[in-house]
Amino acid sequence: MGPAAPFDWRTFFWVFFRFDGRIGRQVYWLSLLFLTAIVGVSGVIVIDPDTGVPVWEMGPIQSLIYTAASISSITISVKRLHDLNMTGFFALGMLIPPIMIILTIWLGVRKGDSKPNRFGWESDAVPTKAPPDPTDEDDA
Fold first, then answer.
1. What's the DSSP call for residue 120?
2. Cβ proximity of 127 and 20 under 8 Å
3. How open is the CA angle 11-66-50, to the nearest 5 degrees?
4. For residue range 76-125, what is the model confidence (pLDDT) as tens digits?
5. H or E stretch at 45
6. In which region does residue 65 sit, left (phi positive, over 0), alpha (psi from -120 to 50) or beta (all else)?
7. What is the C-alpha to C-alpha distance for residues 40 and 38, in angstroms, rounded to an integer?
């Protein structure tokens, strides 16, 4: 067992904040789990004095974290759609709660392209150059 690889901020930024490239099912689920954990630990549960019901209280920092996590969730979904050779436009469904649940599960279980497609050469790698255009044909 060799030494652990150093943390790569470039890859972290790409996964959570860029729309280009592709990610596979494992990175998709781990990314969503990470976002859920960050949102979960940032909130504070308090008892409402009027009703006695526990509520999740959010201040300005928690609101910022929740907003960043929501945007990251959409970027992750766009990259997962790219792995299925679909446009990221369908990630807008993540803004509608019932569709979000179905789309999240569907993206997490559907197998992606094993070959390069118009969105990238491979899954789970920061794109380095433009992928091949599947409509181009060699004349040679």
1. B
2. yes
3. 160
4. 999 999 999 888 888 888 888 889 999 999 999 999 888 888 888 877 77
5. strand 44-47
6. alpha
7. 5
- Tokens of residue 38, six digits: 């960050």
One-letter amino acid at 24 equals G
As given in the structure block, the two tokens for residue 136 are: 């181009």
Q: Residue 15: name the closest of 65, 98, 82 by CA.
A: 82
Residues, the chain: 140
Query: Residue 38 above 90 pLDDT?
Result: yes
User: Per the structure block, which two tokens stand in for 122?
Assistant: 């491979």
**Residue 131, token pair as written in the block:** 């992928």
pLDDT above 70 (res 132): no
